[in-house]
Amino acid sequence: MGGAVSAGEDNDELIDNLKEAQYIRTELVEQAFRAIDRADYYLEEFKDNAYKDLAWKHGNIHLSAPCIYSEVMEALDLQPGLSFLNLGSGTGYLSSMVGLILGPFGVNHGVELHSDVIEYAKQKLDFFIKTSDSFDKFEFCEPSFVTGNCLEISPDCTQYDRVYCGAGVQKEHEDYMKNLLKVGGILVMPLEEKLTKITRTGPSAWETKKILAVSFAPLIQPNHADSGKSRLVHLPPVAVRSLQDLARIAIRGTIKRLIQQEALSRGGSGLKNPPRFKRRRLRRRRMETIVFLDKEVFASRISNPSDDNNNSEDVEDERREEEESKPSELKPDPPINFLREKVLSLPLPDPLKYYLLYYREK
């Protein structure tokens, strides 16, 4: 799946392309996509493909195409404080983006069949929390992952505001998926080769919308050959935050508001980083012949003796234009973590400062 938009040179350019193609349509979704670099969820030897609009699979590790994740995030209509269940949570990439929107009072759970993928997801989550400046720009709802088959979730589990299934669902399992939703909740899943959005409008009432045609690997059926018994999946309990943790959230929120107010008074943009500046090379393309054939257009180039001279002149012109533009180019300053700087400047004991920063070393 994928290939709907052009590849990007980096994560931001990929998001620019997804916005231009109307896969990303809301500011909340855009912020979440920009905050987490897709390449961080690839194995090192495959990172060259991270910014292509293509799915990636290596062993049990899998990432859907960016255009698919964009449609999923938009269809879920996420809001702070909601509960979210990710069936087939994989690398945790989607769950982490969702967590940036849910905020500290949301619920973020994932079920993954393969234990090695759970370990991979935990490593990537730990890397994000410890190293990403985006962690300090949001209040994060950290995902919790459990191992098991998502078709064997315990019947006494809580229901969720939002549910996503990342594998193909057959018609026979549609009601099972629907029952995971609260009234007013939204379920997004590939159902019979269509990415489908289902909204629970009442105890027994549903609205269904087909989003786009997709091709997903089907859900793996439970295997009871060994014991003959179902292995029920027990989802994590909904944790109640401690008073100390609530105080940390409140203090960090207050500091962020102060930073924003100070930046606005100076005409700045607060916690946001300066805009990126990227050079776009202009490439000259010459087409001497255009042929119309059966509603298609073919452009062909007729060579002539002066082509070689013209090509060399074009290359020289491009080189000269680039040289002339260098002095006027603006390069962005390195990103500044304003929250971290403000916390470290407070007249507080070091242990309290580091607690407010979640003991992050960066």
From TrEMBL:
Q: What's an example of a GO molecular-function annotation for this chain? A: protein-L-isoaspartate (D-aspartate) O-methyltransferase activity
Q: Which Pfam families match?
A: PCMT (PF01135)
Q: Where is the composition biased (Basic and acidic residues)?
A: 322-332
Protein name per Swiss-Prot or TrEMBL: Protein-L-isoaspartate O-methyltransferase domain-containing protein 2
> From which organism does this entry originate?
Colius striatus
InterPro entries from the xrefs? PCMT, SAM-dependent_MTases_sf
- Can you supply a Gene Ontology BP term from the record? methylation
Positions of the UniProt region annotated as Disordered: 302-335
Q: Which CDD domains does the entry link to?
A: AdoMet_MTases (cd02440)
Q: Where in the cell is it found?
A: Cytoplasm
Show the taxonomic lineage: Eukaryota, Metazoa, Chordata, Craniata, Vertebrata
Biased amino acid composition, Acidic residues: 310-321
GO cellular component, alphabetical, reads:
cytoplasm
Chief location of this protein within or outside the cell? cytoplasm
Top-level division of the source organism's lineage: Eukaryota
